[in-house]
Amino acid sequence: MGSKMEHAIQRIVVVGGGSAGWITAGLLAAEHGHESAADFSVTLLESPNVPIIGVGEGTWPSMRSTLQKLGLSEIEFLRECDASFKQGTEFVNWSNHDAPARYIHPFSLPSEFASLNLANYWLDQRQHSDFADFVSPQAQVALSGLAPKQCQTPEFAFNVNYGYHFDAGKFAQFLQRHVTQALGVEHVLGHFEQVISDEQGDIAALVLSDGRHIEGDLFIDCTGQRSLLIGQHFGTPLEPVDALLFNNRALAVQVPYADAQAPIASTTRATAQQVGWIWDIGLQSRRGIGYVYSDQYQDLQGAESTLRAYIAATSPGVETASLALRPIEFQPGFRQQFWVRNCVAVGLSAGFVEPLEASALALVEQSANIITDHLPRTRQVMDIVAKRFNEKMHYHWQSILEFLKLHYVLSKRSEPYWQDNARRESCPDALVEKLRLWQQQPPWHEDAPRIDELFPSASYQYVLYGMGFEPAQGGSARASHIREQAKAAQVVRMNRERTEKLRQGLPSNRELLTALVGQSG
Ligand SMILES: Cc1cc2nc3c(=O)[nH]c(=O)nc-3n(C[C@H](O)[C@H](O)[C@H](O)COP(=O)(O)OP(=O)(O)OC[C@H]3O[C@@H](n4cnc5c(N)ncnc54)[C@H](O)[C@@H]3O)c2cc1C
To answer: Which domain holds residue 171?
Structure first.
């Protein structure tokens, strides 16, 4: 024990220069860099030989607060990263192949969600309106291709909640510039090869291929799918989840617009296919499209023709035959531990499952925030912080699995992939239990009880009712809820009025971006 345990944690080494590495390094430097600048340092090591994954184009609203914490200008970010505004996800043909339908999971909570569960009220009149339209104006705003705010609205403020779509490669470069120049993070280009451990088993230093050593007190593993420190050095296994979420392949492509002024979609569009789904993301200068599927049900050639058929059908006027498709493999799963000794994994090195709700960057942000807010002052308390971090991340991963699975178990599609996906044995017990409860009462705060919950119970409502989930007979309104009906009726009326006002007052996504990005910076 003694001096080593009392040793202050001052030299942070982040390994990896993808989104995870730059976000984590930036948040740490922004929060702690000024405290005792002479002693505290953040170094980011990045291999010149290993490219970043370069996909990951959809974010949550949490990214607004991350950009603010980093001290970034939103307009500069929009301009430099080819970025656009995202208001949620639009799911197409998920519930039933034979009866094409769509629903939206918007970012805005249902109105008055803190105290009023509008789902109780909606269930009694569900044949007249989609759930999302009933409880919030956002679905209609997004489906009309409108922006989340007006040209004069201040940076990061909004009329309806939003996150972003962006070019992942440009985003990493943008962060790198800002985090090194404005926040003082040291950027080292070098290929890590070997760990030097101290006598307790902590990482003391990293050895690079050119012989340089990088010493540190805390090492953050952002090495992507290779998971060089947590996975390879510490041997922490990946907990596979492919029995639950089948998808383990992606094919990504960048598709130009037919015309530079083409509308920019306000949501990520996720269209179900025979063995998976296709994401479609509108940036300022192009679309980012990708097919996520399982190699147990379709080979690469079949996947390519599925994706090409989608691109051809949705891109009139664009020459699509020569577009290059990029295959990506992943093993769905997460580490059994995320923080081991003086090393913590953030990003793909910690785990990855299909990007259906774009939860990966949100989890990067959460992880980086926890590390920043609870940065142990000495080695002595690091194990306590690590234990809490591991518990929290396990909880988050379980909720990601449950929430993503919800999109599949309710589907009535008839193809073998979908039938298998909806089988009881592929579904977590906790979700089966919740579904039984939701037969009798709609999701509410008890279903997502923690303050730092990734998915509020509103998200469960949007997916459940968007997918056409039917409660059991008599399972909707209870006496206490009937008493709330007058208030609910008033809120719904106000929503309708607000929807009309927003429709008239908001520019299109493209108009707002053109106005903002065109401003002199
Ligand atoms: C198909 C697909 C779609 C996705 N879509 C979304 C989405 O819509 N929304 C979302 O939130 N997320 C999405 N993600 C996840 C998202 O891409 C990642 O979470 C995010 O990019 C973070 O990646 P990373 O920084 O962990 O890893 P990477 O970008 O892979 O970075 C790894 C870094 O480690 C460095 N490195 C590797 N080896 C060494 C070494 N030996 N020495 C030094 N450095 C080394 C590399 O140089 C690189 O800089 C998607 C992922 C995939 C696969």
So the answer is: 3-57+167-239+334-399
